Input
Amino acid sequence: MVARRNPFAAPLREPDRRIDYIFVRGRDERFVGEPLEARVCFDQPVDGTFPSDHFGVVATLRVA
Output
């Protein structure tokens, strides 16, 4: 996720957007996951500093 409120990403002058993907299938279909929930993480500054120019995503998957 790119957000203009993050000073590391602000110079890019790109609009706020979300481009996160979580792939849940393996090549041979034996490993198939089902997303149960997902959320953005690392989207708040710590002592005024963001940890990266992008925010993270955390997901809980059920794996068959």
Observations:
- The longest strand covers residues 33-41.
- The CA atoms of residues 24 and 31 lie 8 Å apart.
- The chain has one domain: 10-63.
- Residues 10-63 form one domain.
